[in-house]
Design goal:
Elements lengths: L30 H10 L9 E4 L7 H10 L2 E4 L11 H15 L4 E7 L9 H7 L10 E5 L2 E4 L14 H15 L6 E5 L7 H9 L3 H23 L2
């Protein structure tokens, strides 16, 4: 069993019924749908289980054995392995590689936040912080005509200004980099629709940036989807 107290705490364990089968269309599934289903490589003989977990320590060999034996998909949430590794990337590379040694069929998803420039990514985070125009926290909702628009106060976590082409490029380039790693099977995109939170939307509207922010988000996700389809034959 996994320890669930102390420094290593399960943030969330989800049981996902992977209802990809034809998107509810029964026998009318398209050839692309069938390819997606085949690539998932799981069986309904047992319920596919998904693990979303975090903790400051790296897992022991016994814990990795347990995960590899009992779960189909795994996402290590941000902050994972922080006491044993310099960055999240280092922690997930070790854990994912060890899991795939134990179970080559297990799928590992990389946690990538679509709204916040979380500081656990080492050099990636440093690059983000070097561009204040990419950050809408601390009351900034971006730069217009060279001048910052201040709306919210008191925020401390950097937030990605998806209206800015440079911020989108940073987010996408790092997503593409991750997807090329042999131990990563996909992305867990957190806060994917954060701008639609009523408070966030209202703030963006007050600053006159709602339209360009929504457009930027759609452009970012469209490019991510095109990349995935191109590189996976869909």
């Amino acid at each position: 069993m996994l320890r669930t107290t102390g420094a290593k705490t399960i943030a969330y364990v989800g049981l996902m019924l992977l209802a990809f089968a034809a998107n509810g269309r029964g026998d009318e599934a398209s050839s692309k749908d069938k390819k997606v289903i085949a690539d998932l490589d799981f069986s309904w003989d047992t319920v596919p289980k998904f693990l979303y977990i975090s903790g400051r320590e790296q897992f022991t060999g016994k814990e990795l054995d347990y995960i590899a034996r009992n779960f189909y998909w795994v996402t290590f949430a941000i902050g994972f392995g922080g006491e044993d590794h310099k960055t999240y990337d280092d922690a997930i590379e070790y854990a994912a590689t060890e899991l795939k040694k134990r179970n080559p069929r297990i799928k590992v998803l990389y946690y990538w936040n679509a709204a916040r420039g979380i500081p656990n990514y080492g050099g990636i985070s440093k690059e983000f912080l070097e561009h204040p125009e990419w950050d809408i926290s601390k009351g900034l909702l971006g730069f217009r005509n060279g001048s910052p628009i201040r709306i919210q106060k008191g925020k401390t976590t950097p937030e990605i200004n998806v209206a800015h082409p440079g911020a989108r490029r940073w987010w996408l380039d790092n997503a593409f980099r991750v997807l090329k790693q042999p131990y990563i099977d996909g992305l867990w995109v957190d806060a994917a629709g954060r701008i639609y939170n009523p408070g966030a939307k209202k703030a963006l509207e007050r600053g006159g940036m709602w339209t360009e922010t929504e457009k930027g988000l759609h452009l970012m996700y469209d490019e991510l989807a095109k990349y995935y389809r191109k590189n996976n034959g869909y």
